[in-house]
What we know:
It contains four helices and three strands.
Amino acid sequence: MGLDRQNLRDQLIEYTRAADLTVDLVSHRAGNDAWNTSSGICRLHSKVRVLLIAQDPIDDQIAVLIDALRLHGQSWIDDHYLPPAIRACLEN
């Protein structure tokens, strides 16, 4: 049985944090429309951070988490058990 999108995102957040990447869920407040914000990955003081914009579509947030794990957490992924549904996301 597959995971619903919300549960998948939440599990990916857990695994991303376990891989020693910082994950921040931030809100794009009304009135800040001049800022072009979207979820993404950045490096701040040598630390990889994943910023998830709460208003972004959940599939966009999932894609960013998958990218972060693939790019910056591959050794952690290789060394840990992941449920088949999560591993399938990371391999596709």
